[in-house]
Design goal:
313 residues, mainly alpha, Rhopdopsin 7-helix transmembrane proteins, 13 helices, 75% helix
């Protein structure tokens, strides 16, 4: 008799989260809820402003708008699930819902890695080659770059999710994480996961060290150019902007690299959950603040949009 597929018998997973620390669940629920609301508000305002104000229809704000939309989708794919887990004693998720959540979170994270690299290139061209900027960063090229990032990362995530979820789990269903994070789910597999891990490693190399090296090179050239600026005030402004941008980039990349390029272990670690929160929740909250809401153009555009909304009432 043919042995039944053990994966097909598994209809749901149990998300362990902070079940062992019930007192921490209430505190984390409030913190993550407030952070999620800030993410929705900050990124939502940026999207609306960049659409309604024609002066912000430039490549820089086009990429920023994409980043804001991506951050909203990224956090929405996982944060409601995390919040629900803090409130309900039965922390279960169906097999299919787990696969969908894994796919969405993974594809959004990959797209953000690529998009941050594109944004660094845009700033390099704008500052180091200002005369050629309108030609090099045409609207058509920006749309092609952003579209390619979304499509390629979606296809990559589909492949990795299908390979991971087709593994036999032999009834193992307790995921030691807040969400269906792919590494946490792979630890439950009762078969060889080397193929899935190989795909994850190749993807991590393409989406982490490569874009990060490109970002560092771009900002190094930008800083070299700003050092030649005669105005001390101009140099301070450039250094302040670049350091703020790099701080957010380093926070995002360092936590993701720690998660996906460290030696694999079958044992669940609290640090895995902490680092996931850092790159999945904290960074999307900081992005609109660091990249745009400190920007005078964005603040002026937001005031004008708000004024028009008030006048139309």
């Amino acid at each position: 008799m043919e042995k039944p597929n053990q994966t097909s018998l598994l209809v749901e997973f149990i998300l362990l989260g902070l079940s062992a620390h019930p007192k921490l669940e209430k505190m984390f629920f409030v913190l993550i809820l407030l952070t999620y609301l800030v993410i929705l508000l900050g990124n939502g305002v940026l999207i609306v402003v960049t659409i309604l104000d024609s002066r912000l229809h430039t490549p820089m704000y086009f990429f920023l708008g994409n980043l804001s939309f991506l951050d909203i989708c990224y956090t929405t794919s996982s944060v409601p699930l995390v919040l629900d887990g803090f409130l309900t004693p039965q922390k279960t998720i169906s097999f299919s819902a787990c696969a969908i959540q894994m796919f969405l979170s993974f594809s959004m994270a990959g797209t953000e890695c690529v998009l941050l690299g594109m944004m660094a290139f845009d700033r390099y061209v704008a500052i180091c080659n200002p005369l050629r900027y309108p030609v090099l960063m045409s609207r058509r090229l920006c749309c092609l770059l952003a579209g390619a990032a979304w499509v390629l990362c979606l296809l990559k995530s589909v492949t990795e999710t299908v390979i991971a979820m087709r593994l036999p789990f032999c009834g193992h269903q307790v995921v030691s994480h807040f969400t269906c994070e792919i590494l946490a789910v792979l630890k439950l597999a009762c078969a060889d996961t080397s193929i899935s891990e190989a795909f994850l490693l190749v993807g991590a190399i393409l989406l982490l060290p490569v874009p990060l090296a490109f970002i560092c090179l771009s900002y190094t050239l930008i800083l070299a150019t700003t050092l030649r600026v005669p105005s001390a005030a101009g140099r301070r402004k450039a250094f302040s902007t670049c350091s703020a941008h790099l701080a957010v980039v380093m926070l995002f990349y360092s936590t993701v690299i720690f998660m996906y390029m460290k030696p694999k272990s079958k044992e669940a670690r609290v640090s895995d959950e902490v680092f996931t929160v850092l790159y999945a929740v904290v960074t999307p909250m900081l992005n609109p603040i660091i990249y745009s809401l400190r920007n005078k153009e964005v603040k002026e555009a937001a005031r004008k949009v708000w004024g028009r909304m008030q006048a139309s009432r």
